[in-house]
Write a structure and sequence with these properties.
By secondary structure, the protein is α/β, with parallel strands linked by helices. 36% of the residues lie in helices and 16% in strands. It has seven helices and seven strands. The protein has a seven-stranded mixed sheet. Strand 3 (72-77), helix 3 (84-92) and strand 4 form a beta-alpha-beta unit. Helix 5 crosses helix 7. The longest helix has 22 residues, at 188-209. It is globular. The termini are far apart. The mean pLDDT is 89.
Length: 216
């Protein structure tokens, strides 16, 4: 009998996803405290693409609990899913595993499916974790996915790496406009223009809210 193929985007949230969220609420409300500012912007009608800087492996979980009652689908690098068990766990947690270094059509189809099913798609434009500097080294994949989905893009700035007994602050920004780029077509140049908008948005958020290092 053929093994059932697991899908990261489903009608209902998986049991594992709900368990992770439940445990995360406890963890991020106590030993790894997280505060979210302008959280009401995350109540926007789905679908939308949520982009953020990335400093800790648990960032997607900490962000997802700030969006109660809805399925957050996030992109994770394919390397995280090494081994069948890891792949199954991540897939059941609604993670789309993506090959960052090649055109991954399967991941693209899942992203489009998430938007079509009115989910919230979480993308880290840098493609990996960066502890120094914020949203400067951006890969074109995130811009390509964002424009192809044609969904609103909401930025979130995380001011420091998640840590025990230290408050991490998350700031939700205004949606990033990009209708003018779509009129030019989706190509390498417009993807780079989108990348620059990401950079400018996060530079502004950093200037307004500072960094975790400055708030010790």
């Amino acid at each position: 009998m053929a093994e059932k193929i697991l899908e990261p985007v489903t009608d209902k949230r998986s049991i594992l996803y709900e368990v992770i969220r439940f445990l995360a609420k406890i963890v991020f409300g106590t030993v790894m405290p997280v505060r979210c500012y302008n959280r009401e912007r995350l109540d926007a009608e789905a679908p939308y693409v949520l982009i953020a800087n990335h400093q800790h492996a648990l960032d997607p979980v900490a962000m997802a609990i700030k969006i109660p009652g809805r399925q957050v689908v996030f992109l994770g690098k394919k390397e995280l899913g090494k081994g069948k068990l890891a792949e199954k766990i991540l897939t059941r947690a609604h993670c789309i595993l993506v090959d960052r270094h090649n055109t991954d059509m399967a991941a693209m189809r899942n992203c489009m499916k998430a938007v079509k099913m009115k989910k919230i798609l979480l993308i880290f434009p840098e493609g990996t974790r960066h502890h120094e500097g914020q949203m400067e080294q951006i890969e074109n994949g995130a811009s390509l996915i964002a424009m192809r989905t044609r969904a609103p893009i909401i930025p979130m700035y995380i001011d420091r790496k998640l840590s025990f007994f230290k408050v991490t602050r998350m700031y939700v920004g205004e949606p990033i406009a990009y209708d003018d780029l779509l009129e030019k077509g989706i190509n390498k140049d417009t993807c780079e223009e989108m990348n620059e908008r990401f950079r400018k948005t996060f530079r502004k958020m950093i200037a307004e809210h500072g960094t975790g290092a400055a708030k010790k």
